[in-house]
C-alpha cells in the first residue's frame, strides 16, 4: 500500500511523532543514554495455564502478557537480586554470556529470569529497569526471553514504603521527575495532543520526618511508583510474581500450600492489576507480612538444618512437574547453593554494593545437563567455570571442601 505523503497526512501525524520524540528524549536522558529499540508485538496468548498432571505441556488460556507456565528452554539463566547496582548487574549478565562489553544482547535464544529486587539499596534503579527493557526487546528479536519478577522491594515501593531507599536512589528519581515534567510541558504545547496527566497531582511537596533536601526526590519516587504511576505501570506491571519454567518454580521468597491452592495465575494477575492501579493502594495479602510469596524465608535460611524440607516437598508435589524451587530474597554469603536434595536453590548472593558487595553468580540450566553455577569468585573457580549443584553430597559439601567465599561487607 503506497505511503500517504500529502500535507494533510503529514500534519495529522505530527502530534504523535512529536510525542514519540519527546518520550524517546526523556528515556535517553533518564536511562543513562539508552535508545530503546522498537518493541516486538506481544503474542495473542502469552499467558499460560497450569499443565495437567498427565500432560506437562503448558496451554494458552488468555490474552494476558504475563507468563506463569513455560516449557523448558534449551538454555535458562537465573539471576538473583540486583538492588540498584547497574555495574554488578552487567557483570552478572556478561558472566552468563548474555551481553557483550557494550551491553548488547548476545544470548541468542536463552531465557533469563531475574528473580526480583531491582529496587532499593542502590542508585541505579531506573537505569537497570531501562537496561532490562532494552535487553528484553533485543532478546525477543533473537528468539530469547527475559522475564523480570516482583520482589518484596518492588511491592514495598509501589505501596510507598521507602525505608531502604538510598539518597542516590532519591536523586535518580528526582532527575527522572524533572525530565518527565519537561516532557509533559513539551507535549502540552502541541495542538492535537491530549494534555498529559500530571503524575505529581495530589502529592505533597513536603514530608514529615524526611530531610528537606530529599523532599523532591521523595515526591518524584511516589509519583513514579505508586499504583499506575509512569514507572510502575510501564515496567513493574510487566513483572511476574510466580513462574514455573519446566521443572523449576521461581519465586522471590517462597510458596506455601495455601499460595498454590489460591492459584499461581491468579496471584500473577491480581498483582499486575494492583500495580496498574485497579485494586487500591496496598498489595494483596499474599504479598505482605512474613509468610508472603515475596517475604517467605522458610526455605532460604543459610543454615540447611533450618529449612523446612518436608513442607517444601509438599508444596512441590502440588505443582505439576515441579522438582525444585528457586528463590532470592535471603542473601547467601557462601554463594548460590542448594539444600533439601537441591529442591531449594537460593540465588541471592548479595552482589549489590548496597548489600554485601558479593561476587556476581548466576545459575545455568543447559538442555538436560544438571544445573551449574557460573561464578566470578576467584577464590572458588576461574570465571565462567562452574560448580555442579546436582551432586550426591549437595552444593553445601562442595562449598565446604573449597572454602567459603570472601566477600567485602559494607559497613
What's this entry about, in short?
Helices cover 32% and strands 13% of the residues.
List the topology elements.
Elements: H1 7-31, E1 47-49, E2 59-62, E3 69-70, E4 75-79, H2 86-95, E5 111-114, H3 125-141, E6 145-148, H4 152-159, H5 167-188, H6 215-225, H7 230-234, E7 242-245, E8 248-251, H8 257-262, H9 264-275, H10 309-317, E9 324-327, E10 337-339, E11 344-346, E12 361-366, E13 372-375, E14 386-388, H11 395-402
Parallel strand pairs: 3-7, 4-5, 5-6, 8-9, 9-11
Antiparallel strand pairs: 1-2, 4-12, 7-8, 10-11, 12-13, 13-14
Distance between the termini: 64 Å
Overall shape: it is globular
Strand content: 5-15%
Q: Indicate the CATH class.
A: Alpha Beta
How many separate domains make up the residues? 1
Briefly note the structural class of the backbone: alpha/beta
Number of strands: 14
Poorly predicted regions are: 52-64, 382-388, 390-411
In helices, the fraction of residues equals: 25-40%
Q: Number of helical runs?
A: 11
CATH superfamily: Metallo-dependent phosphatases
Order of helices and strands: HEEEEHEHEHHHHEEHHHEEEEEEH
What is the overall pLDDT average?
86
Computed over alpha carbons, the radius of gyration is: 22 Å
Structure description:
The chain has helices at 7-31, 86-95, 125-141, 152-159, 167-188, 215-225, 230-234, 257-262, 264-275, 309-317, 395-402; strands at residues 47-49, 59-62, 69-70, 75-79, 111-114, 145-148, 242-245, 248-251, 324-327, 337-339, 344-346, 361-366, 372-375, 386-388. It is α/β, with parallel strands linked by helices. It has one domain: 4-Layer Sandwich (Purple Acid Phosphatase, chain A, domain 2). It has a six-stranded mixed beta sheet with strand order 3-7-8-9-11-10. The chain has a six-stranded mixed beta sheet with strand order 6-5-4-12-13-14. The longest helix has 25 residues, at 7-31. 46% of the residues are buried. Mean pLDDT is 86; it is low at 52-64, 382-388 and 390-411.
Amino acid at each position: 500500500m503506497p505511503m500517504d505523503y500529502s500535507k494533510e497526512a503529514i500534519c495529522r501525524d505530527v502530534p504523535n511523532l512529536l510525542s514519540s520524540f519527546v518520550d524517546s528524549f526523556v528515556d535517553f536522558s533518564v536511562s543513562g543514554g539508552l535508545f530503546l529499540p522498537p518493541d516486538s508485538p506481544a503474542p495473542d496468548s502469552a499467558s499460560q495455564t497450569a499443565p495437567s498432571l498427565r500432560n506437562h505441556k503448558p496451554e494458552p488460556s488468555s490474552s494476558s502478557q504475563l507468563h506463569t507456565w513455560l516449557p523448558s528452554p534449551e538454555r535458562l539463566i537465573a539471576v538473583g537480586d540486583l538492588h540498584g547496582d547497574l555495574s554488578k548487574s552487567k557483570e552478572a549478565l556478561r558472566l552468563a554470556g548474555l551481553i557483550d562489553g557494550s551491553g548488547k544482547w548476545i544470548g541468542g535464544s536463552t531465557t533469563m529470569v531475574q528473580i526480583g529486587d531491582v529496587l532499593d539499596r542502590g542508585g541505579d534503579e531506573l537505569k537497570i529497569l531501562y537496561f532490562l527493557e532494552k535487553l528484553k526487546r533485543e532478546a525477543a528479536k533473537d528468539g530469547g526471553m527475559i522475564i523480570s519478577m516482583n520482589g518484596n522491594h518492588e511491592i514495598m515501593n509501589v505501596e510507598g514504603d521507602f525505608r531502604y531507599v538510598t539518597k542516590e536512589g532519591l536523586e535518580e528519581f528526582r532527575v527522572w521527575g524533572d525530565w518527565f515534567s519537561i516532557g509533559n510541558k513539551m507535549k502540552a504545547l502541541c495542538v492535537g495532543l491530549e494534555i498529559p496527566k500530571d503524575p505529581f497531582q495530589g502529592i505533597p511537596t513536603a514530608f514529615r520526618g524526611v530531610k528537606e533536601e530529599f523532599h523532591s526526590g521523595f515526591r518524584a519516587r511516589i509519583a513514579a511508583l505508586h499504583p499506575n504511576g509512569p514507572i510502575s505501570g510501564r515496567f513493574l506491571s510487566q513483572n511476574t510474581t510466580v513462574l514455573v519454567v519446566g521443572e523449576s518454580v521461581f519465586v522471590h521468597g517462597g510458596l506455601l500450600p495455601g499460595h498454590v491452592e489460591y492459584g499461581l495465575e491468579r496471584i500473577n494477575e491480581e498483582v499486575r492489576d494492583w500495580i496498574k492501579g485497579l485494586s487500591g493502594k496496598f498489595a494483596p495479602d499474599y504479598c505482605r507480612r512474613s509468610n508472603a510469596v515475596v517475604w517467605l524465608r522458610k526455605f532460604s535460611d543459610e543454615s540447611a538444618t533450618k529449612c523446612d524440607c518436608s513442607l517444601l516437598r509438599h508444596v512441590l508435589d502440588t505443582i505439576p512437574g515441579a522438582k525444585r524451587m528457586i528463590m532470592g530474597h535471603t542473601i547467601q554469603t557462601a554463594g548460590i547453593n542448594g539444600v533439601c536434595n537441591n529442591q531449594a536453590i537460593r540465588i541471592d548472593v548479595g552482589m549489590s554494593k548496597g548489600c554485601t558487595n558479593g561476587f556476581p553468580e548466576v545459575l545455568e540450566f543447559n538442555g538436560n545437563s544438571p544445573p551449574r553455577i557460573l561464578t566470578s569468585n576467584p577464590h572458588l573457580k576461574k570465571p565462567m567455570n562452574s560448580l555442579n549443584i546436582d551432586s550426591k553430597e549437595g552444593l553445601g559439601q562442595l562449598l565446604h571442601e573449597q572454602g567459603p567465599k570472601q566477600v567485602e561487607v559494607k559497613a
